[in-house]
Automatic annotation (TrEMBL):
<keyword id="KW-0809">Transit peptide</keyword>
<dbReference type="InterPro" id="IPR029045">
    <property type="entry name" value="ClpP/crotonase-like_dom_sf"/>
</dbReference>
<comment type="similarity">
    <text>Belongs to the enoyl-CoA hydratase/isomerase family.</text>
</comment>
<keyword id="KW-0276">Fatty acid metabolism</keyword>
<dbReference type="Pfam" id="PF00378">
    <property type="entry name" value="ECH_1"/>
</dbReference>
<dbReference type="InterPro" id="IPR052377">
    <property type="entry name" value="Mitochondrial_ECH-domain"/>
</dbReference>
<dbReference type="InterPro" id="IPR014748">
    <property type="entry name" value="Enoyl-CoA_hydra_C"/>
</dbReference>
<keyword id="KW-0443">Lipid metabolism</keyword>
<dbReference type="InterPro" id="IPR001753">
    <property type="entry name" value="Enoyl-CoA_hydra/iso"/>
</dbReference>
<protein>
    <recommendedName>
        <fullName>Enoyl-CoA hydratase domain-containing protein 3, mitochondrial</fullName>
    </recommendedName>
</protein>
<comment type="function">
    <text>May play a role in fatty acid biosynthesis and insulin sensitivity.</text>
</comment>
Length: 268
């Protein structure tokens, strides 16, 4: 295992092609502060360019996965001449860039949720490709209770959860348990707290064993086609599949299946 020097609020470790980014500021409830967003952005950019990383896990230290934006940090800027307008816009745009970086990342990303994920913390979970939650984990978008509708978390939430369920979370701010989060599509799996790391690692290793080219192709196509009209989506997906069929890994994978042997991926 390679362990990178711990960042101030984010830690990274790498093992067997899986990079784990751990939100590491439990004293501030792993809030998506300026520092956290900056370090997440930097690590995601580095991972995107690293062919040695085949899957990513986003985890957190302490009892809270992430409480979302750092409200103290935001409130302090109300003293600015523009009452914080420019700073608020900068932070929201920076957060949106991080969430989109997760979606655009060539590698699949798994959220490992050990505790409470609220507001932009819930947005972070929804932005990941997959999510494994401890049975004690909870989720909510509580902005409405403090007069600040969770509009940016809504973007990721509404792309994962059915509209009625998303609206209920956004309009009430109520906490949703792990089992309910799985039922409505926010998380994939719910496991016992003591098995969370093991289950997430097993899933990450399984993804890392696939052709990196195939996963990259499929992930990009998934997010692009779902924003298209049905005929356009089929036309686009068909073109992607043709190119995928011509790739070396598809030739190898199909040959290995027919020969009843394990494939040898070249990621091309």
């Amino acid at each position: 295992m390679t362990i990178h020097a711990a960042a101030r609020v984010l830690a990274r470790s790498d093992e067997a092609g899986v990079a784990t980014l751990t939100l590491n500021n439990p004293a501030r409830r792993n809030s998506l502060s300026e520092a956290m967003l900056a370090e997440l952005g930097q690590e995601l950019a580095a991972i995107a360019a690293d062919p040695g990383v085949r899957a990513v896990v986003i985890a957190a230290a302490g009892p809270v996965f992430s409480a979302g934006h750092d409200l103290k940090e935001l409130t302090a800027r109300r003293a600015d001449a523009d009452r914080g307008r420019a700073y608020f816009a900068e932070i929201m745009n920076r957060c949106a860039a991080v969430m989109q970086a997760i979606v655009r990342l060539p590698q699949p990303v798994i959220a490992e949720v050990q505790g409470v994920a609220t507001a932009a913390g819930c947005q972070l979970v929804a932005s990941c490709d997959l999510a494994v939650a401890a049975s004690t984990a909870k989720f909510c978008t509580p902005g409405v209770t403090i007069g600040l509708f969770c509009s940016t978390p809504m973007v990721a939430l509404s792309r994962n959860v059915a509209p009625k369920h998303a609206m209920e979370m956004l309009l009430t701010g109520d906490m949703v348990g792990a089992e309910e989060a799985q039922r409505i599509g926010l998380v994939n799996r719910v496991v016992a707290q003591e098995r969370l790391g093991e289950e997430t690692a097993a899933l990450a290793r399984r993804l890392a064993s696939r052709s990196a080219l195939t996963l990259r192709t499929g992930k990009e196509a998934f997010y692009r086609q779902r924003e298209m009209a049905l005929p356009d989506a089929y036309a686009y997906a068909a073109a992607v599949m043709v190119e995928n069929m011509l790739a070396r890994d598809a030739e190898e994978g199909i040959g290995a299946f027919l020969d009843k042997r394990e494939p040898r991926w070249e990621d091309r």
